[in-house]
Predict the 3D structure of the following.
Amino acid sequence: MKILITGSSGMLGTDLVDLLKASLDPNLEVIEAPHEALDITLEDNVSVFISSHTPDIIVNCAAYTNVDKCETEREAAFNVNALGPKYIAAAAKKCGARLIQISTDFVFDGNGNSPYTEEDQTNPLSEYGRTKLEGERNIQNHSDSYLIVRTSWLFGHNGVNFPAKMLELAEHNKELSIVTDEIGSPTYTPDLAKALWTLIKQGSEGIINVSNDGYCSRYELAEYIFEAMCYKIKINPLKSSEYKRPAKVPLNSTLNCQRLNTITGEQMRPWKEAVEAYLNKQKSHN
Ligand SMILES: NC(=O)c1ccc[n+]([C@@H]2O[C@H](COP(=O)([O-])OP(=O)(O)OC[C@H]3O[C@@H](n4cnc5c(N)ncnc54)[C@H](OP(=O)(O)O)[C@@H]3O)[C@@H](O)[C@H]2O)c1
């Protein structure tokens, strides 16, 4: 099986490449396509790159992920998050490859009181969410065979993320203000990579939510990290309405992962265990 990964040097892309390579499966060939090797906004380049490698599976981990910058860099965000997936879908169709697209909880408005299922009504609040939803639609309209994986609040060892920011802020601050009314399921990218591999092997199609089990507020996540690290930081509760940022984000970002659990026969580990694994690995690097 030949698997081509776009955006392969991003936070998720790196962990997925590492996981697949670690399997040492002689029947598995991993083709890495980092941004510098393939810009997914260039239609002809996408077509030539994909047809020359003839992959069986393409996992699109490339995206414009700076949510606030998407508000001002609208064209760039649209090109990467909406047009890129369309070009990849068309090239995948030509060579008969199945396309796995990574999408986001930000396709929802977060006004619901319970975790979002795959069928719930989308209504993005931000340019990031709107462009990612357009990417989903392009894939649905231009692919013969696809899987869209919606995930949330990613953290890992190779990119910008909330736990990494908390560790950085803890180095220079004794007191921080963190939002209490934004709720989500933190998801560890090595765990997401494992779930993706399982879904790929099972030939899953359609839309599937994937996140670590359980949910928390940004405040609770920060509190858990500082406690686990034995950092004495005073955290002041802050309402999201008091935290001014360019993009509007959903207050309820939780995803219902029942479909994933049924398909794979197992549940992702709880977010607290995933955060512990992350912190232990970070400590061992320092
Ligand atoms: N991070 C989250 O909290 C979160 C939550 C839910 C869903 N997701 C989704 O999960 C996926 C992986 O996210 P991530 O956190 O791993 O993102 P990331 O670390 O920002 O990685 C994205 C990768 O895409 C590359 N890229 C950007 N523009 C490109 C282009 N025009 N052509 C090719 N590659 C390009 C980036 O390269 P450069 O660095 O060189 O630009 C980077 O390597 C994305 O689809 C994202 O929307 C993320």
